[in-house]
Amino acid sequence: MHEIIICMGSSCFSRGNSKNAEIVQKFIEENDLYAYFTVKGCLCESECKKGPNIRIDGKLFSDISPESLPLLLSHELGLEK
After folding, report:
1. What is the 3-state secondary structure (H, E, C) of 10-73?
2. 24: phi > 0 → left, psi -120 to 50 → alpha, else beta; which?
3. pLDDT digit string (tens) for 17-68?
4. For the segment 19-28, what is each residue's pLDDT rounded down to a tens digit?
5. How far apart are CA 20 and CA 53, in angstroms?
């Protein structure tokens, strides 16, 4: 089971994680991966200046843009074709 944690602190949220949360949900839907993921939010990753931050399987990624997120998810989750 993979775990994705999306920082929803005010800094990360305003820098793009509001949109990134939607992209994660869409990625899971489009790839029919509901059985393999836990997705949750957290209040702060304590890396506000580097945000928006997303943690995938315990590994923190910073400065995540909506454009780069699908590729990052595919790469980190071993779904690249």
Report:
1. HHHHHHHHHHHHHHHHHHHHHCCCHHHEEEEEECCCCCHHHCCCEEECCEEECCCCCCCHHHHH
2. alpha
3. 999 999 999 999 998 988 888 999 999 999 999 999 999 999 999 999 999 9
4. 999 999 999 9
5. 10
Query: Exposed e or buried b for every residue in 43-74, given b needs 16+ CB within 10 A?
Result: eebebbebbbbbbbeeeebeebeeeebbeebe
- 49 in Cβ contact with 55 (< 8 Å): no
3-state secondary structure at position 78: coil
CB-based contact 60:4 (threshold 8 Å): no
Place of tokens 């602190």: 9
What is the pTM assigned to this prediction? 0.91
Coil vs helix vs strand at 9: coil
